[in-house]
C-alpha cells in the first residue's frame, strides 16, 4: 500500500527522522516546515495523510488542523498530530480541532506505521466515494463536505461490548449526555447485535476472561454490514502489542485505561463525524447516479459514466505512478442469439453476463456496459499480467456454464472474446489505452473467438 504523506515540523531533524521511517515503508514523503506551507501543499497536492507537529512558531499545529478540517477541499485528509506534550487536555484539544489521531514523541515505529496504514486505507475509501461523487458533478458535494455531522441534533447510537460491570457503569456515566449507549456483556451476542442494529460506533473492551477481543474485531471487519462500522478498542496498560494487532485488523481507534471522559467523547465524536460523512457520500452517489450513469438492463455503469470516470482514473494512476489496466469484452456471435431467441432472449444473456462479470471483479474495479454486447472493465492498481489472468477467469466463467433464457429457462452456450491493455510507463493517453484494448479484442475475435489477447506494454 503506497501513499503520499506530508510531514510538517519546523525542526529539520524531526522531519528527516520521520521521512526516513516512511521512505523505508515505501511511502512517498512531502515536507513542510510551517503551517501556511502545509495548508498550501494540502490544497494543491494529492496528500493522503498529514503528520503534523503541534509546537510551531506563528501558526501552531492546532490552528493548522482546524483550518484544514474547516475547508471542504481538505477536510477529508486524515491528520495525525505529533508532539512532545502528553497531557490529556492537549490530546482533547487536538481531537476537537479535527485531528484523526494524536501521537506523543518519541513515536514508536510500529505504532506510527500501523496508524498511518490504517488512515491510508480509510482515505482510499473516502477518495473513491468522493471521486465517484464528483464524476456526477451535480450532487452538491461542497455543501456536504462543509457540514458538521458531529454537532447534529441526533445523538449517535453506540454499542459497548464489555463483561465487567464496573467498567460498563463508568462508560455509561461518561457517555450519558453524548450518546445512546447499548451494552452487550457477551462478545458473541455483541457481534449479532452490532450486525442487526444501525450503530455508529462500537466500543470493545479487551478485558474478557475467556475471549479474545480481537476475534470480535476481525469478525466485524469481515461482515459486509459492519465492514465500515467504526471500532474503538478499550485496552489496559501494557497491551501495546494487542493494540497494534488490532490496528492491523482495521480498528479505528483505541483508549488506554484509566479512560478520560473528555478524550473518550472527543474520539467518539471524531469517529461518528467520519462515519456520517462517508455514509452521506455513499447515499448521495447512489441517489444521483442511478438514472444518469447506470445501464438499466445490466445495472452496470454505462458509457457516459465510463467516458468521464476513466479519464479521472487514468490521471490519478499517472500522478501516483501506479498501474492501470483495461479489458474490453465482446459476446461472440450475439446477433445470432438475438435472431434465434429474440431480443428478450438477448437481454437475458446480457443480464446474466453482467452478473458473472461483476462476480469476478473487485469492488474498486469499474465495470461498464460500453454499448450493445460490449463491456469494459477498468482495473486500478492492476498490472497487465494480473489483468490478463482476470480476463481469462471471466472468459472461462462464461464458457463453462450455459445461459438460461426465456420463461422456460432454455440453456444456450455463450462465449466471450476479451482484449486487455495496460498503462504504458512512457507517454500514454486514455484514447491510446482504449485503442490497444480494442485492437487486442479484434485479434481475439479474428483468431477464433472465445479467447483472451493482451497487448504488451
Question: How are the SSEs ordered, and which strands pair?
Answer:
Layout: E1 4-8, H1 12-24, E2 28-32, H2 35-44, E3 49-53, H3 61-70, E4 79-83, H4 88-96, E5 101-104, H5 109-136, H6 141-146, E6 157-161, H7 165-175, E7 180-184, H8 187-196, E8 201-205, H9 213-222, E9 231-235, H10 240-249, E10 253-256, H11 261-293, H12 303-320, E11 324-331, H13 334-359, E12 366-371, E13 374-380, H14 384-400, E14 403-405, E15 410-412, E16 416-422, H15 430-446, E17 452-454
Parallel strand pairs: 1-2, 1-3, 3-4, 4-5, 6-7, 6-8, 8-9, 9-10, 16-17
Antiparallel strand pairs: 11-13, 11-16, 12-13, 14-15
Describe this structure in words.
It contains 15 helices and 17 strands. It has 3 domains: 1-146, Rossmann fold (3-Layer(aba) Sandwich); 149-289, Response regulator (Rossmann fold, 3-Layer(aba) Sandwich); 294-454, Reverse transcriptase/Diguanylate cyclase domain (Alpha-Beta Plaits, 2-Layer Sandwich). It has helices spanning 12-24, 35-44, 61-70, 88-96, 109-136, 141-146, 165-175, 187-196, 213-222, 240-249, 261-293, 303-320, 334-359, 384-400, 430-446, and strands at residues 4-8, 28-32, 49-53, 79-83, 101-104, 157-161, 180-184, 201-205, 231-235, 253-256, 324-331, 366-371, 374-380, 403-405, 410-412, 416-422, 452-454. The chain is globular. Helix 2 (35-44) runs parallel beside helix 3, helix 8 runs parallel beside helix 9 and helix 9 runs parallel beside helix 10. The strands form 4 sheets. A 5-stranded parallel β-sheet has the order 2-1-3-4-5, sandwiched between helices. A 5-stranded parallel β-sheet has the order 7-6-8-9-10, sandwiched between helices. The chain has a 5-stranded mixed β-sheet with strand order 12-13-11-16-17, with helices on both faces. With 457 residues, it is α/β, with parallel strands linked by helices. The model is unreliable at 137-142 (pLDDT under 50).
